[in-house]
Amino acid sequence: MTMSIICATFVSKIYLQITMKKTILKECLLGGLLAFTLTACEKELSTNEELPLVDEAELTVITRTPDNNIQVSYPVHVYVMNSEAKCIKKETLNSADEALSLSLQAATYQVYAIAGATAWNYNLPTTANAKADDAITLKENAKQGDLMAASSTVTVSKDGNNSLTLNLSRKVMLVKNITIKEIPTTVDAVTVTISPVYKSLLLNGSYSAETESLVVALAKQADGTTWQNSEELYALPAVGKAKLTIGMTTGNETTSYEYASSQSFEANHEINITGTYTENQELLIAGTVNGTQWGAATNVEFTFNNENKTTNGGGEQDDEAPAANTWYKKCFVLSAVEDGDNVVVTLLHKDALTDIFNSDMSATDMEAAATSHLSDFDIEGITGWHLPSKAELSNLSMNVFNTDVENQGGMRIETTHTYLGKDGGTLFGFDYNSVNLSYKAADYLRPVGTLTFKKK
Predict the structure, then answer these.
(1) Based on the number of CB atoms within 10 Å of its own CB, is 126 exposed (0-12), middle (13-18) or buried (19 or more)?
(2) What was the pLDDT predicted at 333?
(3) pLDDT tens digits, residue range 241-278?
(4) Cα four-point dihedral sign 230, 231, 232, 238
C-alpha cells in the first residue's frame, strides 16, 4: 500500500520513502534439542513476556527541486514526533548527495523539516527537548540564512510500502538592493529600517509572536551622494504592512523619514528599494519594492516628504525650550543644555514597557528586543527614542518625576523596577538607587530622547 501527502504551496520538495519489513519471531522447534527449547520457552512464558511481532520501517529522505532554478537550502534537519508530540528522531542531511534512512514502528507521526539553519548560526532543538513550537533562534552576531520549512503527518502501515512528500517553502525575504540617491555630502551615515519583522521561525514552520526591526546600514558610493547596501540580507518577513524609516545622520543629528507601506514584505520575495533626496531638502522617494516569487512580481510605489519627517538628537523645534525637571509634551525634561544658539533638551518618557526581556537573553538579544519597541514610545511628534546613558540618568530626580508622572498619564519609577540602559556601547541595568546593575537584571524599558530648540 502506498500513501502520499502533498502540501499545496511549495518551493522545493523532500521525498520520504518508507518501506515496511515484518520480522516474525520463529516458533520453538522440536528436534534433537527439544527439551532445551521447551525449557527456554517456558522461561519466557513464566515471566509474562509476550513474543512480539516486530514491525520495522525504513524511512529514506531524498531532497529534490522541481527545476534547476530552485535550490534546497542545506543542511536539512528532519524531526519525527510521535502521537504524544515527543521527538523520537532527529537527523540531518548536509547535501543533495546524501540519503537518510530511519527505522520506525508502525504508527502515525508528525514530521518537521527545517532547511538552511547551520549549527554555527542557529540554536536548534535537540531530540530530547524538541517541540513543534520551539523557536529556531539566531546565535549572537549571526545573520539569517535562506531558511525553508515543511511539515506533514504520515501514517506508517505494516501492510506495505509508505511514502510521504514534504514540500519545503521559503520562510525569509531577501533584501536585495537598497539605493538612496542625491544625499548631501555632509551626511555621515544613512540607514534604512524595516519594521516590524518577525524575530524567530518556529519548528512547525510558523513564526513567533516576538518582533524586531531590521536595520540596514548603507555605504557611501564613489560619487559621494549615492548610498547603497553592501550585501544582500535574508530576513524574516514583515508583520502586516511594513514601515520604512530612512535615517540620515550628520554629527549628532539624525533626521528620519517614515513611510507606511500599503503592501506586505512577504517571505519568498526579493525587496528592492530606490529613493532620491531632492535639492529642496525633502526626501521624495518614487521607487519600487519588487516582490519576486519566482515568476510573480508586485510593485509598490511610495513617496516621502516633509509630512513624514521626524527628528532626533538635534532637529529644531519651533517653541521655547522647556526647563529641566519640568514636563514637555508629557515627557520629563532631564536636562536643557545651551549649545551655541541652540538648547539641547533630553527627555525621559512617561511610560515603560515590561515582559520583553528575560535573564536568559544575551546582550545582543536584549538590545534587539529594546530596539524593536522604541518606536512604540513615539508621542506627540517626538520620535527617535534610545536607551539612556549613565550621564543622562545622572540628571534624573526620581522624586520630582514621580510627583507628577501620574498626572501626565504615565507610570511611576518604583523601587522594584529595573530598567535597561546603554553606556559607551555596553548595556547596564538601573533602578531607583543604582545605575551599576547587570543588564540581565532589567525587566523594564523606559527610553530617552533629545530635541534641539533655538535659543529665544
Answers:
(1) exposed
(2) 93
(3) 777 888 888 887 788 877 777 667 888 888 888 877 76
(4) negative
